[in-house]
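Progress against Task 2.4 (sequence-to-structure conversion) is shown through the following example record, which the project officer requested during the mid-term review.
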Amino acid sequence: MTVRVLIVDDSKFFRGQISRLLENNKDVVIVGVASNGTEAINKTIELKPDVITMDIEMPVMNGIDATRKIMQRHPTPILIFSSLSTDGAQSTLDALDAGAIDYMPKKLSEISKHPEEVSNVLCQKIIDVAKQSRMLLKKDSVVLEGLLSRNRIKNTGRNISSVDRKTGKIQVVAIGTSTGGPVALQNILKELPANFSLPILLIQHMPGTFTPAFAKRLNDLCKIQVKQAETGDVLKAGVAYLAPGGKQMSVKGRPQSCVIEISDGPLDLNYKPSVDYTFSAIEKTFTSNVLAIILTGMGADGCVGATKLKKSGSIILAQNEKSCVVYGMPAAVVKAEIVDKVLDLQGISEEIVFYG
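Structure tokens generated for the chain above:
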């Protein structure tokens, strides 16, 4: 599989850096470069790349506006290069809203001090994004356009097993996600009513500098309250608690007076925050009374924790492949045969509202 990449950045130095990193992989081919958003749109239409790497701050047209226009004219997976600073968080979230699939730090040393490792991480990210997009295109020629332009896809949920939908069974909702998660969470939580009667725990793979801005964005958009979780927060109905980036979120106490605990957690975990870590923690407190949901994301984080919850009698939902940006995390729980329902985002919202 050869992935054709268009590099967009106003810095000749940075374009050169990215080019050198990508040239190390025989499966990645650079088909062109652009120095501003307008040029990026024209070259996307002309060259039809598989993936675009996009800077945000550029002359003539910035990366956010360019991303939005590309999604309208020629939908293409876009990987944003962003500052992982607090200031960069808002711009990155805007780019994801505009249609970008994922982001990476523009300061490449934040990935690794070793150029070879940076190259491997970048190339693998690009290949994974392109592979997922091609799978979607093979299945349905209109899916990628609908996915990348954030159009709602008709509910095509299917039952894997029957679900005991007894009112009052569920005491807490927990949602884990990664790549594509910011937009997916936004779409789901916006559908919840102001009088939603359950607490919600959100675990999104995201840097610590991003989560405060993301929590604020969700809170501004949603009828329910959304906040970045803090140690000592008592779980309250109608409040969603976002795990801080770079930390682990657990709970302690009894279900009726459950308190959040934020910590560094075990050193051997690959993700901070980790879906597995939080799911495992809430299983100890809420056992069979959890509605656990796995959304779009690379990898398999959440499968171990969801398995524990399923064995205790909790309900597990997974996002369907068509509506995922990357089907890795939902695919893992589906493959493990622990999922009660596979649904699109609208269907997941409806299930959450039913229980709350």
